[in-house]
Write a structure and sequence with these properties.
The structure holds 2 protein chains of 2 kinds. Chain A has 6 helices and no strands. By secondary structure, chain A is mainly α. The radius of gyration of chain A is 20 Å and the shape is globular. By secondary structure, chain B is mainly α. Chain B has a two-stranded antiparallel sheet. In chain B, helix 1 packs parallel to helix 12, helix 9 runs antiparallel to helix 11 and helix 11 packs across helix 12.
Chain lengths: 166, 339
């Protein structure tokens, strides 16, 4: 009962803040709602007794990445009016295509979930940090390293693009 | 019922009151220490040797006019001091103050909560506090606070990496992320981690100075360049909240340093037999004494060292502290595998 209440509260907060992110007029307000959204997601992780993931969510997303967003938003002048060459019709078509794709994904997930009822996994142990470490560094070592190489490539690419003369 | 709800509630109230009172008197102590370093007397008028000065200061902040700049973003301007203060206070939730005891038949643990990711929780909560500074500077709609908050966020992001890296070495030694577990690991080894990881402790302390915007890294409020820093436009109680947040953060860093590097509530050299008479002093007294000593070093450093230039600060962080911290992790790993 208590868990269900907490879940629906967290879910309502997540959806509410997500709507506010896209409806807020000021970009800085949007970014603030995004932080609140990430914090609510962390609450959902705590509810699933994945404390490590919850803390990482706060540390990396709410505390790290969004600070950089805010940095960019504050550095870039946002008082400019919308650019003249933007074509609302073209954006509208793109929007339709994207929302159909997202809808199809939702339907696919729902259908898949309907067809195969979720197996009840073994209860999470108290120390899920260790389990996560084992999974990342033993079972999925290669994908993990490949993902980190990808990030490194992106980082070097960004530096090369930003700095004309090295 | 008593042990799950009432005891934690009383603990939370006690911790918040203790932090607020400590902040008031640390400010007085800071003025006194700086005065002694500069061969002055410091505050002397209010009470015996200025002992009531903090009360006068608080009263002044209460009755001062609370001004919002004309074209400020009112909501963000109001929220920013709270965003700065709340993370500093909730970080205390996982810090173990003592060994725990039994009072009137009720077991009272020495901490409010012992979660298995305690150390990461503190780092995560600390990273939220940055928003208070950025948003406070931005919403004032004034150029010096904006410049200060940009500087400050760059500084905090840079030094957070080095500080977190030093905590990784501690986790490698203790094998746990729980704050209580880290203290117990030090009790088992018989050595405080400051002796096993002096380099990590040094980087942690320097990074801690930068994370709390303290001298010699008090770049966000460099008076000569930025008027008063990110809180230039704040007055009255809202300014007081920023002030409170800065000092509460200092206490958090000192408490974490005590817990992680100086054995928390443990007496000095817990493994030496003939020093076991030190156990008569209760654990919380050791904890408070050590935290106070670390705080004193904060004040001492401020009175002694001149401020770094911004580019020097960034060079120190990125070219020295972060590589050194990473090297320290690698060396610790090798020693752990070989020994």
């Amino acid at each position: 009962m208590g868990e269900a209440v907490a879940f629906y509260l967290a879910a309502a907060l997540i959806l509410g803040f997500a709507v506010l992110v896209i409806t807020a007029r000021s970009t800085v307000h949007s970014v603030m709602f995004l932080v609140l959204n990430f914090l609510s997601v962390a609450g959902l992780y705590v509810l699933l007794s994945a404390q490590f993931l919850a803390v990482i969510q706060v540390l990396v997303y709410a505390g790290g990445i969004v600070v950089l967003y805010l940095f960019v938003v504050m550095l870039v002048s946002l008082k400019r009016s919308a650019e003249a060459h933007s074509d609302p019709k073209r954006l509208g078509r793109l929007g339709v295509v994207l929302s159909v794709a997202v809808l199809a994904e939702f339907v696919a997930i729902a259908a898949y979930g309907w067809a195969t009822p979720a197996a009840v996994g073994p209860g999470l142990q108290a120390s899920n940090v260790e389990q996560l470490g084992r999974a990342l560094y033993m079972d999925y070592l290669i994908p993990f390293e490949v993902a980190s190489m990808l990030l490194l490539v992106a980082m070097i690419g960004a530096i090369v693009l930003a700095k004309r003369e090295l | 019922m008593v042990e799950t709800i009432i005891v934690p509630l009383i603990q939370i109230v006690m911790v918040i009151v203790a932090v607020l009172v400590t902040v008031m008197y640390i400010v007085l102590l800071e003025r006194k220490v700086q005065a002694w370093v500069q061969v002055r007397l410091g505050p002397m008028r209010v009470g015996y040797h200025g002992i009531l000065q903090p009360l006068a200061d608080v009263l002044k902040l209460f009755i001062k006019e609370d001004i919002t700049p004309a074209r400020a973003d009112t909501w963000v301007f109001t929220a920013a001091p709270l965003i700065a203060l709340v993370p500093a206070l909730i970080a205390f939730a996982v810090i173990p103050f003592g060994k725990g005891m039994t009072l009137f038949g009720v077991t009272v643990p020495g901490h409010i909560a012992d979660i298995n990711v305690g150390l990461l929780y503190i780092v995560a909560v600390g990273s939220i506090g940055i928003y208070g500074i950025i948003l406070g500077g931005w919403s004032s709609n004034s150029k010096y606070p904006l410049l200060a908050s940009l500087r400050s966020s760059a500084q905090l992001i840079s030094y957070e990496i080095a500080v977190t890296m030093t905590l990784v070495t501690v986790i490698m030694l203790s094998g746990t992320l729980s704050m209580v577990g880290i203290v117990n690991a030090q009790a088992e080894r018989g050595w405080w981690f400051a002796f096993l990881q002096p380099v990590a402790f040094f980087i942690f302390f320097v990074g801690g100075l930068a994370e709390t915007n303290r001298a010699p890294f008090d770049m966000p409020e460099a008076e000569q360049e930025l008027v008063g820093g990110f809180h230039t436009e704040y007055s009255g109680m809202r300014f007081a909240f920023f002030f409170l947040a800065e000092y509460a953060n200092m206490i958090v860093i000192s408490s974490v340093a005590t817990t992680v590097f100086f054995g928390g509530w443990l007496p000095p050299f817990p493994n030496v037999e003939f020093l076991s008479f030190l156990d008569v002093v209760p654990g919380w007294a050791w904890f408070m004494l050590k935290t106070f000593l670390v705080l004193y070093v904060f004040l001492w450093v401020r009175a002694t060292l001149p401020r770094y230039r911004y580019d020097q600060l960034m060079r120190l962080g990125w070219k020295w502290l972060i590589p050194l911290a990473i090297l320290n992790v690698v060396v610790t790993g090798f020693i752990k595998v070989l020994v």
